[in-house]
Amino acid sequence: MKQYLFALCSCLFLLSGCAQKEFTQNAPELPQAKDDAPKRQEIVTNALKHQGKKDGLDCSGFVSLVNKESTEPFFTPAELNGYFEDTRRSLAIYNLLETQKRTYQDKPRVGDLIFFANTVKKYSKSKSDDNITHIGIVTQIDPDETVYFIHHTKGKNLISQMNLNYPTVAMYNNKVVNSYMEKCSKDENHKMLSTCIF
Description:
It is a single chain. Helix content is about 30%, strand content about 15%. The chain has six helices and six strands, in the order H-H-H-H-H-E-E-E-E-E-E-H. The chain has helices spanning about 1-20, 35-50, 60-70, 75-80, 90-100, 195, and strands at about 115, 130-140, 145-155, 155-160, 170, 175. The chain is globular, with a radius of gyration of 29 Å. Mean pLDDT is about 80; it is low at about 1-25.
């Protein structure tokens, strides 16, 4: 009887080792998407306070000024130094952000930098999409996807428009949807619209 009881206890002991234990573990929390809306609004606010003024002296100087006032969300002057190909700071900024994989051509957001190619005759011989010669900051986007941006042009920091849905017209439904970025002849006026050099 003792042997039978011992054998029964041994079997129960062995079988209990085969029993599955249920482990419950909560899924790890995913990191929350960073809300960068306050930083983007700060960039726009800092940019708009220079509207109509000569601050920055040129397009990249204006963007550098706003970048500094906004605690350098785009670049630091030290890291920018390694990205100059010539004297164009707008191209150096583009090169830095491209290297950091921070450029995209999807729908822009308020506070984004916006780049243009072939706006300066001195550098226009290249006529390539990556011949960056101008830079601005997106300030507003309308429901019809008209993008407003502030940039240094004609000696001042001014607001201009761009709408990729209407790339060959300056006006659509009595609204400016694309600004002229450079003077041009009447037969080629659509070639100097913001959409053509974006």
